[in-house]
Design goal:
249 residues, alpha+beta, Helix Hairpins, Heat Shock Protein 90, 2 domains, five-stranded mixed beta sheet, HisK_dim/P_dom
Length: 249
């Protein structure tokens, strides 16, 4: 083998090693930064909740509105950090499901307590169509909760004010399912194939919500794939979207 070829192989090897090392450093930084940010944000969220509940004295309507905006923003930051932690675990090969028996309908009820308040700030009505009172099966409900929060949050922020969002949850003999439908901006047909890839955002979504991260749907698909489930998605630009999932019980 010639010295030129040997040199080229060594250079490629060094380059690949450097790229692997840089990736590890980035993944470690993402994980550490996310963990460090979560603790103070959780504390901020807790104190804001106490203020809203009147633990430090009565608050008037204007003060309550400002506090609610701050609470909703902190809630969203906690979710974003959770998404980045999830992506970090995927990249480092530490993404694992922790399955236990739970009730899908119940966790949606719980998440809607916060999401209804966020929707109210945009004059958006949420209609919850619960086909069954209880939908019990084995899954990683902590991760499914992330998926549900992401999809409903997107429906709220990509919808116009004074509109309605419909959430549906149900089951049949084989599957449990969840879906949320809005009449918002939708996804351009030419961009739908890339929507669940990491850091990708539709062109109209970038204009509507410049602060989006592009990791929520990527992580959602990963979570549903790990459950051997299927993503539910259909959309028409300018008319709205339906997002959701179905999982074998």
């Amino acid at each position: 083998m010639g010295s030129g070829i040997c040199s080229l192989i060594i250079l490629i090897s060094h380059k690949n090693h450097k790229e692997d090392k840089d990736k590890i450093i980035k993944d470690d930084f993402l994980s550490i930064a996310s963990h460090q940010l979560r603790t103070p944000l959780t504390s901020i969220k807790g104190y804001l909740s106490m203020l809203l509940e009147g633990d430090a004295g009565e608050v008037n309507d204007l003060q309550k509105r400002f506090l609610m905006e701050a609470f909703n923003s902190s809630e969203r930051m906690v979710r974003i950090i959770g998404d980045f932690l999830g992506v970090s675990r995927v990249q480092s090969g530490k993404f694992e499901l922790q399955k236990e028996e739970g009730d899908l309908a119940k966790i949606i009820d719980e998440e809607l307590i916060v999401l209804q308040e966020i929707a109210k700030t945009r004059n958006i009505k949420i209609k919850f169509n619960k086909k069954h009172k209880k939908i019990i099966f084995s899954a990683d409900f902590s991760k499914l909760r992330q998926v549900i929060m992401n999809m409903i949050d997107n429906a709220i922020f990509y919808s116009e004010k004074d509109s309605e969002i419909t959430i549906e949850v149900g089951e049949d003999k084989k599957y449990a399912y969840f879906k949320v439908t809005d009449s918002g901006i939708g996804v351009p047909a030419t961009q739908q194939g890339k929507l669940f890839t990491k850091f990708y955002r539709g062109s109209n979504a970038q204009k509507k919500r410049p602060d989006g991260t592009g990791v929520g749907l990527y992580l959602s698909k990963k979570i549903i794939d790990e459950h051997n489930g299927e993503i539910i998605f259909y959309s028409q630009e300018g008319k709205g979207s339906t997002f959701g999932f179905k999982i074998k019980k």
